[in-house]
Amino acid sequence: MSEGDDEDSPSRPLKVLVDHANPVQPSLCISSLSKIAPVVVSAIDKPGFFLSLKFADTKSFVDDLARLVKPVKNVEVASGGDIFVFPFDLEQKQAILKLNCINNLEVSCKLTKSESEFRGVIVGVPVSELDSEALLDLLKDQRVTHVNRVNKFVDGVQSPSTVVVLTFSQPFPYRVRLCYRSFVVRAYSPKPMQCSKCHRIGHTATHCNFPARCPSCGGSQPPAANCESKAKCLNCQKDLHLTGSPAYISHLNALKFARANNVSMFEAKQRLSTLRSSTQTPPSASGPAAP
After folding, report:
1. H or E segment at 64?
2. Which residues, including other chains, have CB under 8 Å from residue 113's CB and lie 6 or more apart?
3. Environment class of residue 272 by beta-carbon count within 10 Å: exposed (0-12), middle (13-18) or buried (19+)?
4. How far apart are CA 186 and CA 173, in angstroms?
5. Which CATH number fits domain 116-187: 1.25.40, 3.30.70, 3.30.870, 3.30.1490?
6. The pTM is what?
7. Domain edges within the chain
8. Taking the domain 39-111, which CATH number applies?
9. What is the pLDDT of residues 164-197, one digit of tens each?
10. H or E element: which one contains 42?
11. Which of 74, 79, 106, 105 is nearest to 92 (CA)?
12. Within 13 Å, how many C-alpha atoms sit on residue 14's CB side?
């Protein structure tokens, strides 16, 4: 993270890492398309409920939803077991948010975090003086609702850093005041999830269906403290990439695209894939030219 104030303005576009195997610089925000973020529908007191439903039961749920608020644009079952409901317009979205029972199931309908929470990052907050609770007490009059100090690893030991993530109840300001100092607030960009069991990108150990793997070589044998096998990329099982794992870069770009456009990760990946396809020149049908 840069600590320069001139580079920390929240109005600056988010940076996108480039997958050098597919060198595309996707736009993070499609201003020509009016996007409406989905509504998150959860079964009350039944975490992960929709993942356990049969297809016929899921269809019955969606049919009853359509009966209550008219057919919606799209419905997706999330990896955590909730359902993302994509409305056609804001009026339909408000109608969905008022629902508390669908297909005889008690549900909670709420906004996504990208709409209900606004997170920013400040850098250079002294470590020895203030813990998260004390920071929140000093910042709550600036509409800060949660404070999380980012940890770092030095020589394998975890310790607090000077980077602090702030959650606001409204769009965050350009600066916040703290102990007679002013800190520039920049947009928070989440990092891709990485499983601590199989070490692949995109999910956590709680929702992992793969066997445990060595975090160094990716072998299926139990993880060893001193693995003597050649280290490999844990996502593609090839040699380590000098520019970073393509899977990590692709997932990070999708996260930033999804957050900037208020769309799901599934839709973000589809759009970025379409952008890559449209920028790649198809091979000539006549083959290479003769020498």
Report:
1. helix 55-69
2. none
3. buried
4. 9
5. 3.30.70
6. 0.50
7. 39-111, 116-187, 205-277
8. 3.30.70
9. 999 998 888 899 999 889 999 998 877 787 888 8
10. strand 39-43
11. 74
12. 22
